[in-house]
Amino acid sequence: MTKRKLGRGVAIVGAGMSKFGAFPGKSSRDLFVDAFQEMLASVDKGFDARDIEALFIGNFSSDLFEGQGHTAPIMADWVGLTPRPATRVEDACASGGVALRQGMLAIASGLYDIVLVGGIEKMTDLPIERVTDTLATAADALYEVPAGFTFPGLYASMATAYMSRYGANTDVFLKVGYKNHENGSLNDKAQFGQRIADIMEMRKKSAAKKGLPIPEWADEMAFLKDDRANPIIAWPMRLYDCSPVSDGAAAVILVSEELASRFTDRPLYVIGSGQASDGATHSRPTMTSLPSAKQAASIAYEMAGVRPADIQVVEVHDCFTVAEIIATEDLGFFEPGQGWRAVEEGQTARGGPRPINTSGGLKSKGHPVGASGVGQVLEIWKQLRGEAGARQLPGAPHLGLTHNVGGTGQTCTVHIFERR
Ligand code: COA
Fold first, then answer.
1. Coil/strand/helix, residue 70
2. How far apart (Å, rounded) are the C-alpha atoms in residues 163 and 150?
């Protein structure tokens, strides 16, 4: 494959996000305004929003979730940016990552110098049955949906294939959820920002308040293995293996490399970008890897001129806990079949040699699907600038990576960021 490079360098000079969660009184417009305002405030040397020339907004399904299509110009209007071109980007849960890539390409091509990339989703207005059906539109409506597959079901199939092929047990999935709740407890934007131990305490207090028998668990793993506390959604995926249904928005500002110093002395450069497509789950030769993720990663690594071992901060698409383990193998951090062992050994914990999802990941931080790919960039922005507070990784990391999956891998984007 021909080695690709950008026509000119692209830098991120500001980033913001709304809180992720369930916000009954707020629309995706309100959440986008929250993200936009935080993004403006994050630009070190100040920023005039009128300098933005175009918007690319990742959004999966505002049509079905909110009864509102054509969302990009609405977002432009709500932050006072009409008549600039505003383009909605849809690739299921990878919409945010693809919007980032489109914004980056628009600058690299020389067409624009300053571009806003956003991501939005407002999922919690619908009952869970309709959320599940809406999410299932990202699967194959010809073969998978009529066969009864939901997204938890599709990823559960991948989990059983992974266990069968590599000898992993169900405990390892619970350990990924445990880890991501530990990380998310240090993130004030997280939807489920509690440690499992905190959730156990909350359950006990709630039972006591209702006059019910107070549940007892020996430890966190006992809680996570308890069918009442952590019910099975689609075996072996339990509640705490699933990312939640979420509302949220995120926004970053991209500029051409030459302009970066006008806004900050600490930009992040987008040095690698890969995107790939694939058929639906049923048509793949393997259920234990996402070929699109491997392809996107290899393009991004080659463009950036770095190897997996060089990357210090990583946000992967853990829509289900099994997806995080597979991602760490597809990205080349561990050999195929070794990702689960790395979890067992604590390698992917915040204090381990290969920390994964320091933000809490989609599991704990939340997964407003169209916003997630842009939300991942926020963590890299904070970690590489030394602004991640209590969850800051030591050693002044300078290389970060995001991995954003649409569906079960029909789309994948991988981006690599550098602080120089
Ligand atoms: N993790 C942890 N706790 C969760 C949770 C999650 N993912 N989702 C809900 N909860 C909690 C709620 O806060 C609530 O707690 P409470 O009883 O103390 O108030 C309880 O679990 C039940 O919540 P509820 O909203 O009734 O759950 P639900 O059954 O409607 O939804 C799932 C649970 C797992 C079905 C839903 O989160 C889901 O579909 N997740 C996957 C989303 C998805 O597929 N995304 C796309 C990926 S590609």
1. coil
2. 20
CB 108 within 8 A of CB 248: no
Query: What is the rounded CA–CA span in Å between residue 105 and residue 128?
Result: 37
Q: What is the rounded distance in angstroms from the CA atom of residue 391 to the CA atom of residue 179?
A: 13
State the angle between helix axes of 28-42 and 71-78 in degrees (0 to 180), rounded to the nearest 10: 50
Which pLDDT score, from 0 to 100, does residue 5 have?
A: 85
Provide the token pair at 296.
């996107």
Using most ligand atoms within 8 A of CB, pick from 124, 128, 157 the residue to mutate for ligand 1.
Answer: 128
What sign has the CA pseudo-torsion 42, 44, 46, 50? negative
Query: Rounded to the nearest whole angstrom, what is the distance from the C-alpha of residue 142 to the centroid of ligand 1?
Result: 27
Element (DSSP H or E) covering residue 207: helix 196-209
Closest CA to 416 of 395, 393, 399, 397: 399
* Successive 10-residue mean pLDDT values, the chain, 420 residues: 83 98 97 98 98 98 98 98 98 98 98 98 97 96 94 97 98 98 98 98 96 96 98 98 98 98 98 97 95 98 98 98 98 98 98 98 98 98 98 97 98 98
Paired tokens of 19: 């809180």
Q: So what's the pLDDT on residue 3? A: 74
Six-digit token string for 266:
């600490």
Q: Is 93 in the pocket of ligand 1 (CB under 6 A)?
A: yes
CA distance 328 to 253: 28
Tell me if 319 CB under 6 Å of ligand 1: yes
Alpha carbon dihedral 141, 145, 146, 147, in 10-degree steps, equals 140
What is the reported pLDDT for 37? 98
224 forms beta bridges with: none
Q: Is 239 in the pocket of ligand 1 (CB under 6 A)?
A: yes
Per-residue DSSP letter, 257? G
Nearest CA-CA partner of 318 in 193, 411, 403, 201: 403
3-state secondary structure of 105: helix
Distance CA 90, CA 134 (A): 14
pLDDT at position 1 is: 59
Which are the contacts of 397, defined by CB distance < 8 A and separation ≥ 6? 312, 313, 383, 384, 419
User: What is the C-alpha separation between 131 and 133, in angstroms, rounded?
Assistant: 5
3 state SS of 106? helix
Token pair belonging to 318: 């853990």
